[in-house]
Here is the input.
Amino acid sequence: MKILIIGTVNGLQNEGMRNVITHLSRSFEKKHEVVYFALRDIGAILSIAKSTDAVIVCARANLKVFLLCQLLRLHVNKLFVLLVQEPEYGFVLLNNVYPLRCNYFTIYKNDMRKLRLPKEGKVFEVSVGIDSQKFRARPPHERSHLKEKYGFDTLRPVVLHVGHCSYGRGLEDFCQINQEHYQCVIVASGLFENKEVIEKLQKANIRLLTGYLPNVEELFQLADVYLFPTKTTEFVISIPLSVMEALSCGTPVVAYKQLSSLSYIKTTNPKALTIIDSMIDLTKAIENAAYYKSQTTLLSNSKSWDESSEKILEILKG
Here is the structure.
């Protein structure tokens, strides 16, 4: 089967979105031919689309994506939009007047709640995958060795976030954490950085690790709490991969109620995922969460990327 993948290549709008389609595509490639194009390559997309068996669009569902899908529908029989985030208003508005004749994959069913489907349209729920061999929990003595390796005090809890230091992600909340009681570290990709955000973090003595880390899983493993401080769905996918990776490493997560989609994640312990109302609750939530650091996974019924991709492939073949 020949599959055309259309997506946000540089990850500017959403790094998590690019990561999802990258993982799935690598699994597709094991048995099928996969062709990739960026959203901007409209001419090339329309030219090659006719020779493919299925087309998957994985990008923020906005006005541009809607218009591209309308064009694609003239050339292909199997068109799928992979929603990993709530669609933008422009997409919803046009679609509900002129429903796209396509099917949808979604990682969070509520992202579809505002969209009108055509009579023949279908919605398929798919899982975010996790590499459970890489992102696995470690026993206490190994976690201590990892803390020493990265220069942390083994006696004080580590609060972690992995992402990039861009505007709107709420990273400034780290500045409110008591540095005498906790060691705070943000692993940043170095992409899309906001100067003001970085300056605030540095002024508060938040440790920043930038650039590519080949063994980033070790930070998830040594951390005592994972803080996901984003308070809007604009800048993250509905099921953030870093939250899944933290839980897989036995690290409890603290996040805000604005990301209601996090309640969709199944955990082995109800205390593994703490949802708070506001920053006022942050200190107490971190203190409580640290007690539930585990030497076994905190994810329940997680899927590998191969398992997730296999379900999609079955649907594409149907």
